[in-house]
Structures are given as C-alpha cells and as structure tokens.
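Posting here for the record, re: flavin-adenine dinucleotide.
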Amino acid sequence: MANFTLLPRLACLLLFAAPLVAFATSTPDDFLQCLSLHSGNASAISKLVYTPINSSYSFVLDITIQNLRFLTPFAPKPNYIITPLNISHVLAAILCSRRYGLQMRTRSGGHDYEGLSYLSEVPFVILDMANFQLISVDAEDKTAWVQSGATVGELYYRIAEKSKTLGFPAGLCPTVGVGGHFSGGGYGTLLRKYGLAADNVIDAQLVDAQGRLLDRESMGEDLFWAIRGGGGGSFGVVVSWKVKLVPVPSTVTVFTILRTLEQNATKLVHQWQLIANKLPDDLFISLALQSTNSGPNGTRTMQASFSTLYLGGVDSLLEVTRSSFPELNVTRQDCTEMSWIESTVYFAGFPSRTPLEILLNRSSDTKMFFKNKSDYVREPIPESGLEGMWKRYFEEDEGVPQMIWSPYGGKMAEISESAIPFPHRAGVLYKIQHITLWTTGGNEVAPKHVSWIRSFYSYMAQYVSKSPREAYINYRDLDIGMNNVIGDTSYKQASVWGKKYFKKNFNRLVRVKTAVDPDNFFRHKQSIPPFSF
Ligand SMILES: Cc1cc2nc3c(=O)[nH]c(=O)nc-3n(C[C@H](O)[C@H](O)[C@H](O)COP(=O)(O)OP(=O)(O)OC[C@H]3O[C@@H](n4cnc5c(N)ncnc54)[C@H](O)[C@@H]3O)c2cc1C
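Prediction output follows.
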C-alpha cells in the first residue's frame, strides 16, 4: 500500500515550494489559493477545506472530539479544517500554514485527553487525517501498512479478515486513531506478550516541516526512533505506519470477575500486585476499580473487576490461575473461549455476540466529560494505602472516579528503556490510569471532579514512582507541565513534563527535534521543543 513511487513526484513539488514567510495580513482567499497551488488540483482541495462560514464546519470539527469538556462554544476554533485525501494535500497544508503564520494541529482519531489535536490559543489550522483510512494486510509476510486516520478497531478487523492466527498489540478502544496512538506507545491486552504498538512499528511515512515525504530509510534512525513513542504532533505528520503482525492462537479465553470489599477485594487487590507482572506472558489480568452503592443495604463499597485475556484454552488457563492466583477462585463457568478478534470486541465492552463489524463503527464510543492522569507503580501498595484510597473514593460521587491497573512484566520488562522513547519498562509492576468521568452536569461540575482527581493524585504520590514521577504520554495530562504556545519554550520548562513521560529519552527527543524542526512548526502545549535555554 505504501506508494513510494510518489516520492520523486512529491520531491518535485517541493522544489517549487514557496518561501516559508509568515504574512500577518493574509485573507482566506490567499490561504486557499496557496493550498490550490501546492496541492496540484484547485477544485479538489477547495472541497476539503472548511472555514467557520461552511455549514459543515461544526460537524467536521466536533465529530471525533472525545472529551466533552472541550466540545463547547467557548473552546478556541480553527480558522481552517483541512481534510486531505492524498499526500500532496498534506504537503500543501504544511507549506501554506507556515507561509501564512498559522499554527497547525494534526488530528487522526481525536482521542487526545487534553484536546491538543484540535485546540490552540493562537490562529490555527486542523489537519484532520480521518480520510487516510487504508489498511493493507500481507498475511504471508505478517506485516500491514495502516494509514494514520484508520482506527485500531479497523486494523484488528482487517487483520482478522486475512488470518485467524495473526493479531496486533494495540489499544482496547476500537475508535482510537493509529496516528496519535502509535505515536505515544499504544498498549492493550497483548502488552505482556508483545509489548506496545510502537514496539512493533517497522517503517513509516512522514511529512516533515519542510514538506518532505520520508520513509524509515530517508528519515534516518534518530527520527524513526523519535516518532515511535515520542508523542504525536512534534516531528511531522505521520501518513502511515508499517507494522509487524504477531501470532495469536485460534482460541483465547476471557473472564471478568467482580469482587467487592465484602468479598475480600482489598486482600485480592493487594495479592494481584504481587503476582500480575510475574504471570506467564500469555496471561494478562487487568484490574478496574470503582466505588458503587452495591454494599450491604445499598451502602458504598469498592468493586474490583479482574478482566483477563489468556492466549490459550480454558483448561490450561485454569491450571495457571489455580497455581498462581488461587485466591481469585476462577472457575470454568467464569471463562469463555473465543477467537482473538472476538476478544477485541469483548474488551471494548460490547455484549457477547455483538457482530465484529462494530469494530468498523467510528462512533461506537459514548463521548464523556473526563479528566485523567497516570502513574507507574514499582513497589506494592500496602493494604493500609489501599484503604486510604477507598476512603477518598467514597468522598466522590458514585461511579465518577475509576482506576485501571495494567500489569507490566513479560515482554515489557525485556525491552530496554531506550529502545524507543517510551521508557517505562523493567521494574514497573503496573500502570495506573486515574479516571474521573461524568455524563451529567456538564462543564459546570468539572471544577469539583477535577479538583477531586488532583487531590487523589497528591495522596498517591507516596505509593508510586518517584524522581521522576512517571506518566504515560498517551494519557496526556497538562497538570504535569506545559509549553508556551507563543514564543520559545525553554529546555528547562519542558523537562518538567518531558522527563515524566520519557525519563532520560527526553534529551534525545529534544536533539532530534532541534535537527528536524528547529523553527518549532509542529508544536502544541506538550510537544517536544527544539533546544533553547
Ligand atoms: C476512549 C479512549 C480509550 C483509549 N484507550 C487506550 C488504550 O486502550 N490504550 C492506550 O495506549 N491508549 C488509549 N487511549 C489513549 C490514546 O492512545 C491517545 O489519546 C492517543 O494519542 C489517541 O490517538 P488519536 O489519533 O485518536 O488522537 P488525536 O487526538 O488525533 O491525536 C493525539 C496526539 O497525536 C497527534 N497526532 C495525531 N495524528 C497524528 C499524525 N498523523 N501524525 C503526527 N501526530 C499526530 C496529535 O496532534 C495529538 O498530539 C484511549 C483514549 C480514549 C479517549
């Protein structure tokens, strides 16, 4: 699918590219003319550009926004939304945005937690890659090319169309876009067996700030390293990824077991911390925690859900759980055998027998208001610490705060911290995603919920990784620091958040950025800045 015959033709386009000068007094006509000039087909590109006077502008803007906190009339809106159909449109968007001094935000699936793919405080353009949806699977070669606007659900579906024994280790939510997801790592139920999505990227096509279309060979190993986990929106526009597919058995087994405090949840959660990262790589038991009113006589309790994917049949799963986690008391009745592709539907939260085509439905999520944060845990939290967490959960509304604990170990512990920019490897027991999400009350209740999660995060400091307190870039959190949107961001300022996401790899990311985008064209509140004091 990767059309490398395009490279020479696009290189020609570049030779004639306009000088990169910002004109403060441009008009929409100037900008549109620039796009037409550089995309090679005036009538085609004009149909792909939306301005606030177009009737479809709001629809196109809002359609993939996941976090309802940012879906408000008060959020800053782009001067233009460009929805390219081919690479020359991407080039034109970059060159003309630079020429007319507009910042650019690249959006693929629109799932950024802080809305950084579609928000800016200065005049800007959204380059929306949603039309780049092609997926080409080569089952014999065990590889696939996937364009950045495709979703992980679409990738899983297309793989399963070609093979029942191949899969890919990416996220649980089918509507997440591969453009942003692979750029920040991307994990799901296969993480302990095969690592992250970004660990399994073997080539990519990217358009850089100079408008050059590059592949792995032409971009060089430094830039190829940086785009696999260094976070989206810093180095260029990823057009497509080539990924290595991974073997999965024709039968896998899943279960979800719920336990409340009255059913010994605190002890089970404590025990899970001791074993979940040491289980065989074929076994992934994640833990979701929330408070409900399902205690005796409707009192508040905590509910722990142990959700499991096992790469094998039920008999061997029962053997493993009996010997390694007998306290959970897994029975045959708890377990269901299915194909790997069916398990992706199961983990996306759909009822059994939901047709696989749900993976192709880009609006299958329920959009919600949320503010999330993340932590990495390297030492088990004592039972007294867990009880302190439950107490704080009971102070918030029922069901609003949640945590998802994802076990590490296995392949994650074998990959070196510097293999790609994602550094959270050996020694991590598990990752916590702290979630506060709500569907009623809108943005009016946001201050209350956001303030609760910030205070909970402070409480957790004593139990989680330190110096730095590590965080996952794909769970974007502006509370841990941000860049200036206008003017330079100093290395020191960006290190505050950068070292939490990338540890020592942050320095190499800054060096790559300085080499490939010294003018800092690709920028947002948490993009890697070029070096500046
Ligand atoms: C409901 C939900 C479920 C999730 N589940 C998981 C999960 O199971 N596992 C997991 O690891 N993460 C998960 N995430 C987090 C997700 O991985 C990140 O939010 C990811 O960045 C989303 O990618 P996107 O393309 O959808 O987002 P976007 O908002 O489009 O982009 C995110 C970032 O990447 C940049 N970007 C987007 N496209 C490109 C491109 N083509 N080239 C360069 N930069 C680009 C954007 O500018 C932005 O900075 C989930 C998020 C949500 C909202």
